[in-house]
Amino acid sequence: MTSQEIREKFIKFFEKRGHTVVPSSSLLPTDSSVLFTTAGMQQFKPYYTGTADAMKDFGSLNTVSIQKSMRTSDIDSVGDESHLTFFEMLGNFSFGGYWKKEAIEYAYEFITKEMGLNIDYVSVFAGEGIVPADEESENIWKSVDSSITVKRHGRADNFWGPTGSEGPCGPTTEIYVNGLEVWNIVFNQYYQHADKHLEPLKTQGIDTGMGLERLAMVVQQKQNIFETDLFEPLIKILPENIDIRIQRIMVDHARASAFLISDGVVPSNKEQGYVLRRLLRRLIVHAHMSNIETEVIRELLLTVIKHYSAYYSNLNSETILTEFNKENDKFQKTFKNGLKELEKLTTVDGASAFKLFESFGLPFEIIKEVGGDKVKTLSREEFEAERKRHQEISRAGVEKKFGGHGIKEGDLTAENAEEMKKVTRLHTATHIIVASLQKVLGQKLPQAGADITVERLRFDFTFPRKVTPEELKQAEDIANEIVDKDLPVTCREMDLQEALDSGASAFFKLKYPPRVKVYTVGAESNPFSRELCGGPHVSHTAEIGHITITKEESVSGGNRRIRATIS
């Protein structure tokens, strides 16, 4: 059974059982408490907490998805038989639609009948603190199949904490096949607050996660995940004489990089861009040290696109190769000097390791791998502490220069007053572009996410097809016409229903408070744009500057993404 057949079987199995199929969300989450999307439940977090209505948005209380996921905690471990950075998570979810009995029965049927696998054993929560043992799940498993061995484990193994600092959580039951945990079923019964105390959820929910790579391994009867059809085409590209650990690192990092770039990440020294830079540079250095031509890395990236684009349509070869080529050109000029500098050192501590990164771009992973005895005592924690110290020094310098501090206003955050001015202009530009697109396309465009940095704006919307270049140009022209007219941008606070009755657009997944802010571009009686928004915005459109739409692309089924800049 191929990995694509596994995907299809999983989706169809739950679709037949009343689950709405929801496309994967971006690797860049709307939840600011986490760096990447690390699990399938993240895009559904508002439905567990009651801040969004699943029946309204999905027509069902039950959903199924295959979620692109990324976990940076495993970067140092990549190279063994099981650890990855990027992976796909199969999941079925319920927001008060069904509970433990149905979730366990579905899982048992899918594993044993659809996949034809034998379950070694299952585990349930043994109880700890205020949370009692999950005897209910244990009894359900025994009623489903009396021959199944049920083991009880503590909080470390069978209690799922929230993604981020707080959120839904609860006891779990796990399914083991061939000694490997393949499926984790979470019973969201509690909300964990930032101070770690638990509060019962008003609506209990089901959140399951099953890694496609692990499932493919047991279904295809392979010894490890890198022998599955998800990785075999990539491994074949690399010379056979290369150490197997290096092969695994290179194919993992190529796959992760392709997906990150396609979701809008570009290499940088901050946040998601910093992770991408680490992955790409590790790829480049390993290729150099293994006498592999740069063209082989490009072939790895193109092969990822070839094998995944049928399911993830936003994988774009031009974008991926462009970003790789830029980073490769930049890094090639310095990293060889960095390796020479590393050779000169007798010992490497956090400070000298960070200097190698800052001056020559050498990632921590490469320093550890090629440093030999001189890096024996160097730890990731020591390196990151030094990096954080330098960031704080740099931030202090910025604050001194601009006489300000890190700023948060409304929906926006910035390092200083100058950056806040820029992101505010981009924020208003987003509203204007959305309204312009709606005029060109002749319909409302439900907004599905947005992200604004000091360099650019990005927003997602629901639309069934690609927006043509001609339509994008029309929208851009309309937007700049509104800028040139220097229309007023005004804000009024009003009751939510009054705001909606006035025609104000709203973010379809959010649950709004009784009183809201409404920003209007143009005259109140005949506005160009009117939206519910936390602000801030410019006072007149001419403050924005010239708008340029730089890209339109698919994010996932039914969702499109626009990127734009101002000058």
**CATH architectural group of the largest domain:** 2-Layer Sandwich
How many strands, which pairing sense, and closed or not: the largest β-sheet? Answer: 9 strands, mixed
Please give the alpha-carbon distance between the first and last residues: 52 Å
Indicate the proportion of strand residues: 15-25%
Report helical residue fraction.
40-55%
Oligomer: single chain
CATH superfamily annotation of the largest domain: Bira Bifunctional Protein, Domain 2
**Arithmetic mean pLDDT:** 90
Number of domains: 3
CATH topology of the largest domain: BirA Bifunctional Protein, domain 2
The first-level CATH class name of the largest domain: Alpha Beta
- Please provide the count of β strands: 18
Computed CA radius of gyration, to the nearest angstrom: 25 Å
Class computed from helices, strands and strand pairing: alpha+beta
Number of helices: 19
In the predicted model, the low-confidence regions spanning at least 5 consecutive residues are 401-405
Q: Based on Cα principal axes, name the global outline.
A: globular
EC number: 6.1.1.7
Family: Belongs to the class-II aminoacyl-tRNA synthetase family.
Organism: Candidatus Yanofskybacteria bacterium RIFCSPHIGHO2_01_FULL_41_21
Pfam families: tRNA-synt_2c, tRNA_SAD
